[in-house]
Amino acid sequence: MGGDRFGSFGLATQLARQAMPADEAIALLRSGTAKPGSLLAYGNGRSYGDSCQNDAGTVVDMRPLNRVRSFDAETGVIEADAGVLLCDLIAHGAPHGFFPAVVPGTQFVTLGGAIANDVHGKNHHRRGTFGCHVESLTLQRSDGRTYHCSDSDNARLFRATIGGMGLTGLILSVSIRLMRVPSLDIVEKVTRFRDLGEFFDLADAADEANEYAVAWINQLAGGHGRGLLFTGNHAEHGSHAASQAGGRLSVAVQPPFNVLSRPFLTVVNAAYRWKKGRSSEPRQAGYQGFFFPLDGVRDWNRLYGPRGLFQHQSVVPEAEARLTVPALLDAARRAGQGSFLTVLKRFGDVRSPALLSFPRPGYTLTLDFPNRGERTLKLLAELDCITVEAGGAVNPYKDARMGAETFAASFPEWQRLEALRDPAFMSGFWARTAKKLGARPDIAEAAE
């Protein structure tokens, strides 16, 4: 976790050198005296790369802004400060039969961070991204003005802020619609598949029949993607109480080396497949284990050692997936790089309101690699090339090293965000990619 060190979750990027309390940053912005590129909101440090870092300026600690302002138990609309954690939203809505419509793989993200990255979950095929459920937001910009943004009010700023990686200003508060559910418990079914071809044959039906669907791949196994398909739906009869956030286990001290070696991963993957794939019968379980399994071990990222990890998440069009996904896995195997967590899922065609949003129709593959320096960077560049050549995209808020050209190919509309970016806000990611590309005046003018 970021903690007071204000780092990124991947641990491979430089720590923020300075941090400013949210109230001081708000006062500075309202005075109109914030310097260009000097600020960037920092939530709970769950971004893997430098999209939550500002090497040349100051990060703004948003966690003290953590008040739930109102909740409508009839409609599920909740208004809260940007620093409220997702686990707190779950706890607030659960007794009334509501749950966030979209949750990522951790509940320890702030509301503002979830919007800034337009995060997705295991049900994109039905609910789209997190931004699809935002009713409105309040944004503080460096011109001294506070903007109320929605589909009908400051709509361009609204769309730019969702998925805008914190570059349009400081999100102060948000109004979002939760989803009514019969219970928080999940009825989960696990289906084994022998290879990626069998997974792709199963994927359409899995999405059609289930609220949630995601696959785990044994990336170290021979062949082309043996793994498990997890599907789930909220149980008709189950708990309406949020369980305590956070696991009992913790990696209290960072080891001086990468614990997740290839032999260790081989054993873990085999054990995981055996344990989870023992039965194909549906089972009812609590939501934490289904949505947030890694939250059960606090600071698990420390297992990668002091050099940290890189995560590579790509999305490729559905028509290209049967060739491209095996090519990505083959590249990692040829490089001798083992992924601790390899996840494959299908994105649907529910369109996000965001100006820039990573999810798009197709299949998304996520790989985690220990940082082994140049060797790992070379592999990640190869994965970028395979993805872009297939007409796909690389996820910016999981990234710590992609080149400007990869970003431009993944997000050809990036100039529109640059045109609406607040001049006082900058991130390490944006400086490394978009600023090196420059903005075309014709695109910038079209966005005004």
UniProtKB/TrEMBL annotation:
GO MF annotation, one: oxidoreductase activity, acting on the CH-OH group of donors, oxygen as acceptor
Flavoprotein as UniProt keyword: yes
Superkingdom of origin organism: Bacteria
InterPro entries: FAD-bd_PCMH (IPR016166), FAD-bd_PCMH-like_sf (IPR036318), FAD-bd_PCMH_sub2 (IPR016169), FAD_lactone_oxidase-like (IPR010031), Oxid_FAD_bind_N (IPR006094)
Residue ranges constituting the FAD-binding PCMH-type domain according to the UniProt record: 8-181
Pfam families: FAD_binding_4 (PF01565)
Keywords: FAD, Flavoprotein
Protein name: FAD-linked oxidase
